[in-house]
Amino acid sequence: MKYVGVDIGGTNLKAGLVDENGNLLATQKMKVASIVDREGLAWTVASLAQELAGAAGVPMGEVASVGVGVPGTVDIRAGSIAYTCNLPLRDVPLRKLFHKYLNIPLYIENDANCAALAEFHVGAGRGSKRFVTVTLGTGVGAGIVHNGKIYHGANGMAGEVGHMVIEQDGLPCPCGRHGCWEQYASATALKRMTAEALAAHPDSGLARVVAENDGHVSGQSAFIAAREGDPVGQAVCDRYVNYLACGVINVVNIFQPDTLAIGGGVSNEAEEQLLLPVQQRVARESIPCGKDRRTRIVKAQLGNRAGLIGAALLGKNKRI
Ligand SMILES: [Zn+2]
């Protein structure tokens, strides 16, 4: 059988058709802004499923289900979207609306959980029994896969590791607290730290790297400058990696997964600049245990396709 996945992002909606092994057979992308209301969303999801099947030459009878990943809170049993942070989607009974257009099962899940599920089945978490992904993007998200199932908590809200405080009375966060991890370890935070260093050191190697990028500060700027030997860029990287490692150690101490995968664009930086220092600090500071029982800290493998593939695989693993 084949499975359709839809990943609703802040800007783009990505859809894909995958086979049993999570291989993408066809993909589509569109602007989320072009969807005007909840009916429009249900109709779009149903239309995309049919278009993808057509593009891949797969009869609709072979499409087992549609899975939808949502950047927010969902009710997986009811198949509805409860709340999204950055989109006007609240209390949307998506499954019910979708079934007006297409009569195949529809599953719904938080997007970070979809990414974790994809990595678990076909990426960095293959073979893991206790698996956690941490994704560094606009915020810091996590997915917890325990014995092959997403851990949802009592109310579906588990895994919000980005909102654990690592700096008491620190920077304000939209969640209402101060000093949340995502204010220090997200890609957004890395860019902010880079911009601050740039303002304080306008003659640095970092400033040259940014100038060569048309004055645009990216999540890569500090890492590039550090690789070129610039102490200002290196200081930004050290600060960022310290905050990242601090939160990863907290997550390891709480869950003691056998594998923890770090994903998001930032995770693509050179291993010796990001993954290695995090691994070293985790080994040094997490609760001691035998060397062979330590959490493996690895890079996620599926990149920005993880959410899409995981959404599709919801249907294959309907017991989650
Ligand atoms: Zn927060």
The radius of gyration over CA amounts to 20 Å
List the total number of helices.
10
Output the CATH homologous superfamily of the largest domain.
ATPase, nucleotide binding domain
Name of the CATH class of the largest domain: Alpha Beta
Biggest sheet: strand arrangement: 3-2-1-4-7
Cα shape: globular
Report the sheet-strand fraction: 15-25%
Q: What's the pLDDT, averaged over the residues?
A: 94
CATH topology of the largest domain: Nucleotidyltransferase, domain 5
Assign a percent range to the helix content. 25-40%
Ligand roster: zinc ion
In total, the number of domains comes to 2
Major beta sheet summary: 5 strands, mixed
Order of helices and strands: EEEHEEEHEHEEEHHHHHEHEH
**DSSP summary, beta strand count:** 12
What does this structure look like?
Helices cover 35% and strands 22% of the residues. The protein is of the alpha/beta class. The chain folds into 2 domains: 2-118 and 305-313, 2-Layer Sandwich (Nucleotidyltransferase, domain 5), CATH 3.30.420; 127-300, 2-Layer Sandwich (Nucleotidyltransferase, domain 5), CATH 3.30.420. The strands form 3 sheets. A 5-stranded mixed beta sheet has the order 3-2-1-4-7, sandwiched between helices. It has a 5-stranded mixed beta sheet with strand order 10-9-8-11-12, sandwiched between helices. A two-stranded antiparallel ribbon has the order 5-6. Strand 8 and strand 9 form a beta hairpin. It is globular, with a radius of gyration of 20 Å. The two termini are 19 Å apart. The mean pLDDT is 94. It binds zinc ion. Zinc ion (ZN) binds at residues 163, 173, 175, 177, 180.
